Amino acid sequence: MALLPIYETPDPILREISTPVEKVDDEVRALIKDMFETMYAAPGIGLAAVQVGIPKRLLVMDLQEPEDPDDPESKPVREPRVFINPEILAHSDHEVPYTEGCLSVPDQYAEVMRPDKIRARWLDEHGKSHEQDLEGLLAVCLQHEMDHLEGVLFIDHLSKLKRDMVLKKLAKARKERGLRAA
Ligand code: NI
């Protein structure tokens, strides 16, 4: 297993359209393992292959929700999920706000509106097909990750004013990080 480099905006690779995974084989499963390791280490709850420089329609996710839903400090439960060649078959007309972040836009958060329910189809790491109705954070996170497959970042959903603010904060944080490291 290996930690993979996470590409950050404005790297042009993040704007590429990912291509379908042709065959779910051992090579793909090895990449999935590395992607999980990279995502947990970051730490994050979702990671698309393009974020580690591989523009394939593959993403990993683990919401790591607290054991006790009433206590956010309780131990996070690991529930790894793999989505290969995911498709959204239908979505509700009702949009809800959620404060999103992204490992490719480090430490920046903003509210994004998305449909609260989706019906999705995907392959798992064994090539088995799944079709399911998803809602809540799972639906939000899958939509966010699937945006990556189209070269879209969550900041693209914001107004220009809001997006510029986020990018300014990101530039400032990078500068401070650079100064500290120097
Ligand atoms: Ni992201």
Automatic annotation (TrEMBL):
Active-site residue list: E145
Q: Organism classification, top ranks?
A: Bacteria, Pseudomonadati, Pseudomonadota, Alphaproteobacteria, Sphingomonadales
Q: Which leading EC class covers this enzyme? A: hydrolase
The protein's name? Peptide deformylase
Reactions that this protein is recorded to catalyse: N-terminal N-formyl-L-methionyl-[peptide] + H2O = N-terminal L-methionyl-[peptide] + formate
GO molecular function per UniProt: peptide deformylase activity
Instruction: Extract the PANTHER family matched here.
Output: PEPTIDE DEFORMYLASE
What are its E.C. numbers? 3.5.1.88
Role noted for this protein = Removes the formyl group from the N-terminal Met of newly synthesized proteins. Requires at least a dipeptide for an efficient rate of reaction. N-terminal L-methionine is a prerequisite for activity but the enzyme has broad specificity at other positions.
Q: Which UniProt keywords apply?
A: Hydrolase, Iron, Metal-binding, Protein biosynthesis
Database matches in NCBIfam families = pept_deformyl, PRK00150.1-3
Residues binding Fe cation: C102, H144, H148
Q: Which family does it belong to?
A: Belongs to the polypeptide deformylase family.
Top-level taxon of the source organism: Bacteria
The coding gene here is: def
Q: Check the record and name the CDD domains matching this protein.
A: Pep_deformylase
> Per its UniProt record, what HAMAP family does this chain match?
Pep_deformylase (MF_00163)
One Pfam entry name: Pep_deformylase
According to the record, cofactor stoichiometry and binding are noted as:
Binds 1 Fe(2+) ion.
Its needed co-factors are: Fe(2+)
